[in-house]
Design goal:
It is a single chain. With about 375 residues, this protein is of the alpha/beta class. The chain folds into two domains: about 180 residues, Rossmann fold (3-Layer(aba) Sandwich); about 190 residues, N-(1-d-carboxylethyl)-l-norvaline Dehydrogenase, domain 2, CATH 1.10.1040.50. It has 18 helices and eight strands. The protein is globular. The termini are far apart. It is an enzyme of class 1 (oxidoreductase). It comes from Nitrosotalea devaniterrae. Keywords: Oxidoreductase.
């Protein structure tokens, strides 16, 4: 399976980012959207990004022009797919919308084209089964922004061929990214399965302990070795993204997430985080602001319950043969920026104490029942 020509469906932040990294690696790229104005805006952003790389002397001016010339914006769907080897779909995370797009694509796409969806939470198998080629369909989840983030989750559906998994891994490496394979099409895949439930758990921890957001975030940053606090990270990601992922994951597996009403409340109040000026925290300007977190504040909160939550979901992935420790650590390092391996941090806390903490919480709510893999480590 040779990939030379790529069509990216959707020209938003992720779409034009994926188009840019593909063109930078020598692929011919068609960027497709439903209106020319969306494409014009996307091409402007790509040009700005390439100019920035030229000014930083990462690429020459000539290279910048060549890369830009490899991306062709097209509105007409049939024309956009005419000679496509790999189609990467980056339309919004709404299952009905994706199904509608694939129904249109199926009518005009060449026989040789393989399908990839950049979804971060929707089941690959379910989307694949709406198409004429489920064995030639795969999940390829780039992280935002694709130009900077190294991690790409590769998610085979139930019918995806082994050849396509290998081809996709090679494609990801060819665009200078690091693939992590989620071996089973489970809700949230790897990173979101660990990250999204943790936001809810932090809100419960605030209820249980009376700790402040800043104390919890400081402990997450300095004791659990995250690049920023969990509430801060939620604000950075956007409450709209977190709320939507929560609904998707929880509707498919009640065991993955214990939804805290605060997330839905913030979403309903349009307090979406950094982008709207308020989420868990308030922000004053357009510029991305960091919350003042300190090691002093970190000492005031013990994040063992949060650690238990993320470890329990990691253990679930291992027990259910969706991943292994090495791949999970790679995903957390590249996808969430953890500065120390998760299981190493857990050893410092004592696995027995973590399991006991989960068992204590499970007496109130079965959701916290420790996974057998975690119990085996204590």
């Amino acid at each position: 399976m040779t990939i030379k020509n790529i069509t990216v469906l959707g020209s938003g932040i992720m779409g034009h980012g994926i188009a840019q990294v593909s063109a930078m690696s020598g692929y011919n790229v068609v960027l497709r959207d439903i209106e020319k104005q969306f494409l014009d805006k996307a091409m402007e952003k790509i040009k700005w990004s390439l100019d920035k790389l030229v000014s930083k002397q990462k690429i020459t001016e000539e290279q910048g022009k060549e890369i830009f010339a490899r991306i062709t914006p097209i509105v007409d769907l049939a024309e956009a797919l005419k000679d496509c080897d790999l189609m990467i779909e980056v339309v919004p995370e709404i299952m009905d919308l994706k199904k509608k797009v694939y129904a249109e694509v199926d009518k005009v796409v060449p026989e040789k084209t393989v399908f990839a969806s950049n979804t971060s939470t929707l089941p690959i198998t379910e989307i694949a089964n709406t198409t004429s080629r489920p064995e030639r369909f795969i999940g390829i989840h780039f992280f935002n922004p694709p130009q900077l983030m190294k991690l790409v989750e590769v998610i085979p559906g139930q019918k995806t061929s082994k050849d396509l998994v290998d081809t996709t891994i090679n494609f990801v490496k060819s665009v200078s990214k690091e693939p992590v394979v989620c071996k089973r099409d489970v809700p949230g895949f790897i990173v979101n399965r660990l990250f999204i439930p943790l936001v809810h758990e932090a809100a419960y921890a605030m209820d249980r302990t009376g700790a402040t957001k800043e104390e919890i975030d400081s402990a997450v940053k300095f004791t659990l070795h995250f690049p920023m606090g969990i509430f801060e990270l939620a604000d950075f990601t956007g409450m709209d993204v977190i709320h939507k992922a929560t609904i998707e994951m929880h509707s498919r597996d009640k065991k993955v997430i214990n939804p805290h009403p605060m997330i839905e409340k913030l979403y309903n109040e349009k307090k979406l985080g950094q982008k709207s000026g308020e989420g868990f925290y308030k922000y004053s300007g357009e510029q991305y602001e960091r919350i003042n977190l300190t090691e002093e504040l970190a000492k005031k909160f013990n994040p063992i319950q949060l650690l238990g939550n993320i470890l329990n979901n990691a253990a679930w992935l291992i027990t259910n043969k969706a991943s292994d420790v090495q791949e999970i650590e790679k995903a957390l390092l590249l996808g969430m920026g953890l500065k120390k391996p998760l299981f190493e941090t857990a050893k410092g806390f004592g696995m027995q104490d973590i399991v006991q903490e989960l068992q204590k919480l499970a007496r109130e709510n079965k959701f916290y029942e420790p996974d057998p893999y975690l119990v085996s480590l204590k």
